[in-house]
């Protein structure tokens, strides 16, 4: 059913917290995402012209780079963009077949590829560009939050996290239950003033982004003019007078 | 947004078909069209052919057309599903009405015709809401979009009915007047719509899309990929500004005002020349609507382009 599950207090909301302060834009998350998901829940992820000009394909994670601010306060920010597993997911409610759904138990938004008719309306409804159409298979694909890893008892417990999270070399990606205010990710969001993207659309994303930390600005105040040293006085006569008078 | 030929044809053809069905039902029930049962039947078949051709065309847009039946299941939340359900329900009174016409049950045919008219209008409204309910596309999530779809369907339907009546050698005064009224209304509506979307504030900015507005003005530096992708092709389609202006003018004058004027002229002249003018008016209207619908897609902008282009 493409109606959204009713909101419950204490509802589990699995999601990502992405730290824009530490992300270095290395593309490892995007690469490992592609690697895992090319044979995972939504496999295959097609590539077209893979070995020639115009190579492209379906990816669940795209890392953009932006410049924000000007002058000394300006920053270069690397910005990974993927599905935010919204609470108010329009991509789910517009689906005419029930192929798109939001799981009641953990809030993950998924596509049932066997029911998808490939109308692409969900991709139009997603404000964040999280859904990419598999033009080879004729069905919609999207981030699964690695639903086939996080509950997978066949892999070591430490690896039961989304592929993008386990691979991030700078620890910029965190995974957890954002519905629980006591979880590590929720505390991190609270401590670092984490925010949701495009709040004006009221899609209520679960994922949060942590803003780049502010520059450490040195003590503000008028710079103190250094007193001239004797060597700043070019004339020998004046230097001698300075010496006598300072005595 | 990339204009998909299959959807442009679908909305124009089924819109005209439902418009024709609406006028047949309404004017038939109120006795304002003095067409014979045979004429009404031919017009009904034509309307259903247009609708069916449109619906078939919409299947071409799907990745899995053989699963299209599944789209009837989620009418509780999805306007696309509601449209599918409404489209199928509309066939029931329309076909039954046709059967009554064949068997000479005139009164039952009138009641079923009215029912079909209501269903036809509801289907067009559902189609329009598929677009109007998409918040990331500000040119579609606009209050004048549903009104535009409905008015344009009624306009093209009236043009078609006027042609059919004229070709059958019958009095086409009432539908010609409707074409005149709805052509004028559609022109005013589209003009107001274009003025409104040109001055509308963006629904979001790169600053809010990334949250980097807290640092300052934000601009794209490096793209995430060097080649194109589905998002850039589907959502990133842009029509050149100068083409948009000339296509708008074409829609307004050749597609809407033109047929309305020709309809008025045909009313004044009468006779064989009037029939010719009405055919011309209907052709212009359909051509204008194809341009209008193409433009509806081509001018629409999606918030995902903020991430790629910053605007």
Q: If you had to describe this structure to a student in words, what would you say it looks like?
A:
The complex is a heterodimer of chains A (247) and B (311). Chain A is an alpha+beta fold and 247 residues long. Chain A has one domain (14-210): Alpha-Beta Plaits (2-Layer Sandwich). Helices cover 19% and strands 19% of the residues of chain A. Chain A contains 7 helices and 11 strands. Chain A has helices spanning 28-37, 90-93, 121-125, 147-150, 163-167, 184-192, 236-246, and strands spanning 14-19, 47-48, 56-57, 61-68, 75-82, 100-102, 109-111, 132-134, 139-141, 173-177, 208-210. A 3-stranded mixed beta sheet of chain A has the order 10-1-11. Chain A has a two-stranded antiparallel sheet with strand order 2-3. Chain A has a two-stranded antiparallel sheet with strand order 4-5. In chain A, a hairpin with a 7-residue loop joins strand 2 and strand 3. Chain B has 311 residues and is an all-alpha fold. Chain B has one domain: Formate dehydrogenase/DMSO reductase domain (Formate dehydrogenase/DMSO reductase fold, Up-down Bundle), CATH 1.20.1630. Chain B has helices spanning 5-29, 37-59, 79-103, 106-132, 144-167, 173-199, 206-210, 230-234, 241-269, 271-298, 304-309, and one strand spanning 218-222. In chain B, helix 1 (5-29) packs antiparallel against helix 2 (37-59) and helix 2 (37-59) packs antiparallel against helix 3. The longest helix of chain B has 29 residues, at 241-269. The relative contact order of chain B is 0.14. The model of chain B has no long low-confidence stretch (mean pLDDT 93). The interface between A and B is large, with 70 and 59 residues. Strand 4 (61-68) of chain A pairs antiparallel with strand 1 of chain B, so a sheet runs across the interface.
């Amino acid at each position: 059913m493409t109606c959204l599950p009713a909101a419950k207090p204490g509802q589990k909301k699995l999601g990502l917290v992405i730290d824009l302060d530490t992300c270095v834009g290395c593309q490892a998350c995007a690469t490992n995402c592609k690697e895992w998901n090319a044979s995972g829940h939504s496999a295959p992820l097609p590539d077209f012209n893979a070995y020639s000009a115009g190579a492209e394909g379906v990816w669940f994670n795209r890392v953009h780079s932006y410049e924000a601010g000007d002058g000394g306060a300006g920053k270069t920010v690397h910005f990974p963009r993927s599905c935010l597993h919204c609470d108010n997911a329009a991509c789910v409610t517009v689906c005419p077949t029930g192929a798109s759904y939001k799981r009641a138990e953990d809030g993950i938004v998924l596509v049932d590829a066997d029911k998808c008719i490939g109308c692409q309306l969900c991709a139009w409804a997603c404000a964040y560009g999280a859904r990419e159409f598999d033009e080879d298979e004729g069905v919609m694909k999207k981030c699964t939050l690695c639903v086939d890893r996080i509950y997978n008892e066949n892999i070591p417990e430490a690896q039961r996290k989304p592929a993008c999270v386990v691979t991030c070399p700078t620890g910029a990606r965190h995974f957890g239950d954002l519905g629980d205010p006591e979880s590590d990710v929720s505390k991190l969001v609270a401590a670092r003033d984490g925010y949701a993207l495009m709040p004006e659309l009221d899609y209520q994303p679960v994922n949060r982004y942590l803003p780049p930390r502010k520059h450490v600005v040195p003590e503000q105040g008028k710079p103190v003019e250094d007193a001239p040293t004797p060597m700043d006085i070019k004339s020998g006569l004046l230097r001698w007078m300075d010496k006598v008078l300072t005595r | 947004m990339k204009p998909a030929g299959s959807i442009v044809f679908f909305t124009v053809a089924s819109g005209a078909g439902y418009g024709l069905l609406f006028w047949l039902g309404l004017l038939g029930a109120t006795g304002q069209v003095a067409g014979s049962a045979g004429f009404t039947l031919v017009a009904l078949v034509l309307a259903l052919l247009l609708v069916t051709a449109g619906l078939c065309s919409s299947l071409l847009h799907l990745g899995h057309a053989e699963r299209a039946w599944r789209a009837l299941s989620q009418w509780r939340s999805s306007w696309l599903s509601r449209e599918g359900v409404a489209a199928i329900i509309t066939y029931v009174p329309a076909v039954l009405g046709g059967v009554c016409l064949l068997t000479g049950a005139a009164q039952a045919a009138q009641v079923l015709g009215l029912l079909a008219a209501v269903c036809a209008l509801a289907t067009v409204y559902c189609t329009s809401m598929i677009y109007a309910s998409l918040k990331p596309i500000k040119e579609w999530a606009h209050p004048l979009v549903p009104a535009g779809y409905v008015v344009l369907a009624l306009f093209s339907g009236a043009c078609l009915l006027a042609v059919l009546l004229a070709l059958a050698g019958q009095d086409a005064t009432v539908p010609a007047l409707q074409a005149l009224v709805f052509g004028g209304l559609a022109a005013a509506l589209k003009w107001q719509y274009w003025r409104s979307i040109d001055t509308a504030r963006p629904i979001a900015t790169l600053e809010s899309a990334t949250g980097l507005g807290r640092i300052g003005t934000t601009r794209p530096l490096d793209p995430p990929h060097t080649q194109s992708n589905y998002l850039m092709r589907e959502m990133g389609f842009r029509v050149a500004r100068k083409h948009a202006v000339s296509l708008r003018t074409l829609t307004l004058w050749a597609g809407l005002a033109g047929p309305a004027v020709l309809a008025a002229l045909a009313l004044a002249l009468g006779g064989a020349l009037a029939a010719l003018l009405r055919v011309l008016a209907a052709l212009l209207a359909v051509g204008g609507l194809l341009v209008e619908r193409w433009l509806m897609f081509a001018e629409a902008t999606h918030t995902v382009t903020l991430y790629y282009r910053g605007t």
